[in-house]
Structure formats: C-alpha cells, structure tokens
Amino acid sequence: MTQTRTLGTASPLTVSALGLGCMGMSEFYGTPDEAAGLATIHRALELGITFLDTADMYGPFTNELLVGRAIAGRRDEVQLATKFGNVRGPNGERLGISGTPEYVREACDASLQRLGVDHIDLYYQHRVDPKVPIEDTVGAMAELVQAGKVRHLGLSEASAATIRRAHAVHPITALETEYSLFTRDLEDEILPTLRELGIGLVPYSPLGRGILTGRITAESLAKAGDSRSSRYFPRFQGEALDANLRLVEQVKEIAAAKGVTPGQIALAWVLAQGEDVVPIPGTKRVEYLEENAAALDVELSRDDLEALERAVPRDAVVGSRYGDMSSIDTSR
Fold it and tell me: What is the CATH classification number for the domain harbouring 283?
C-alpha cells in the first residue's frame, strides 16, 4: 500500500510520503534524456510515488511538457506541483523574478496548457519577488483557487516573516525549501513557524544535490552540462568538496552498518523529521528512483539519528548552498 502524508492543516493535501523532483530530466544535471524521464515517472507511479514536482523554468518550459506527457490519461493518480516566479525567455535567458498578479495569472494558464491538465494540485511561488508585496502575489494565487485552476498554494524559499504574511491572505499548504543533513538552517526559525501555522514542508535536494548518495567525486562532476561543477554551487568546489566528501564517508559507514545505501539513510533521516515532511529527491534514472523509494522502509532509531547528526554536524559543511543567495528571501 502507498505510504502517504498530509501537507498542511488549513488547506490539507494528501500526497505520497516521498515525491519525485523532475527538474533534472530536462536541465542542470547533465544531458537531458526525455525517454529516461518518461520511464522514471511511469515507474514512480507504479511504486506509489505520485507527488510530482516541476516548474515552468525547468528547461525552460520543457519539463512541464515532459511531465504532462508522462501523466496523460493518469491525471487522477497524481498530485501535481509546479511553480512560477523565476522568469525565463525561450532561449533560457534569466529575466528575473516576478510576483505581479498579472504574471501569476499568465504563468498559471501557460503551465496548465503545457501540462495538459485543468488544475494544478499545489502551485508554488518559486522565489519571492521583493518588489511586490506578498499579499498581492498570494491574493492573485488565491483567485486561481477560486477559479478552480489551482487546489492548494505553496511558497518556495520564503522567510518566516513572509510565510506569516502569506498565510494570513490564504492558507499556505506547503513550503518547498532545501533541507538535508547538509542544509539545516531552516530549523532555527522557518520550521517552527511552519509547525505553528500548520504548514507542511517539502524538502528539495534532500540528498544534498546528490552528494549524500556517495556517488559524487570531482571526476564525476567534470562531465559536460553538470551545473554543480560551476561556482554557483560552492560546496562542490576544490577544498570545500574535499571536506564535504569526508563527511559523506562517515555517512557511508553508518549506512553500511545498517545494510542500506548512503542515499537511503540520508533520505530516511529527512523522513524522520516529522509526518509533515515530504522530501522530493530528483532523479532521471529508474535505478536511483527505486533506491530512493526503498528509503521509506528504513527505520532509524534515536541512536541512528544521533549518529548521523554527529557524522554531519550542522556547522561542518563547507560552502554556501548557492554562490549567489540574493534570490533567497530573508525579509523579517
């Protein structure tokens, strides 16, 4: 039977306990492979992983088309999440962040068309637009709910203060943000705010952009088209990468003692952070999807959790998660 969890209390959405991030099927992590992406989504549905995450900017635009093709005729099986706000042109150029009400409406209609569906289950603002009051953006998103185009609203990379202001306009079902053994800063202020307000957490990069799988090396990153080798990701550069890989070695030891893979134990740690947490590890390969899915069956004791947190202390990870953090909302 499919394991499920419920995101949000004021506007609850029940999803599979593990989701699938679809971004890498179209861009960023090596060469896109549409056939492999379709096969991976179809296998996910077979395994009961029905919470699919995409965004209009991935590709750009091509990832929504891919997901739409993959779920054609199976819409009722899927909890579909997509995002707007990172504006890109047809040639991939980045045109900034927009949260204007006009753009919200335009972006939603375009996403519906590309996905080939009549509604989106969870619609996120991908990045907060500092030029537009969050009340205006969420007000426009709420109108999409009233129109039946969207069922539930989400935010991504929003600060605790922004989350409060948004939730006062319309119930927010989930916050999507980076969270893993390698990225835990949200535990200070954001996670307590989510729990106070009854908002679910959807961690992206729950495997630390793949480093916690134990498969990343300096050599593997040198492959053409892998954005992790760029200065945009400081944790994967030079001495920082060396230091971070030493942390991964300790995770490998703990995983081996339990008879699981490093990625599985890292995902199990995220899953153990609460029933309101639904990680969305991304992959474009069936074999890695199956490995991730098996993390749902990994039970961690209190001793296991403490051992993992000793292996990767919060302040031990070297490098910022992004080289440019200017698009991350830090408003107070």
Answer: 3.20.20.100
Closest CA to 266 of 307, 322, 222, 226: 307
pLDDT tens sequence across 131-147? 999 999 999 999 999 99
Count of all residues that appear for the chain in the document? 332
Examine residue 328 and state whether it is found in any structural domain, yes or no: no
CA distances from 138 to 166, 168, 191, 331 (A): 6, 10, 20, 16
| Residue 78: inside a domain | yes
Q: Cβ(92)–Cβ(56) under 8 Å?
A: no
Domain limits for position 152? 4-210+264-299
What mean pLDDT value characterizes the chain? 94
Strand locations in the chain, DSSP E? 4-7, 13-16, 19-21, 51-53, 79-84, 86-88, 94-97, 120-125, 150-156, 172-178, 200-204
- Residues catalogued as catalytic: 58
Residue 323: the pLDDT is 84
Number of domains in the chain: 1
* Cα gap 199→188, rounded to integer Å: 16
Q: So what's the pLDDT on residue 225?
A: 61
Q: Does residue 30 carry a pLDDT above 80?
A: no
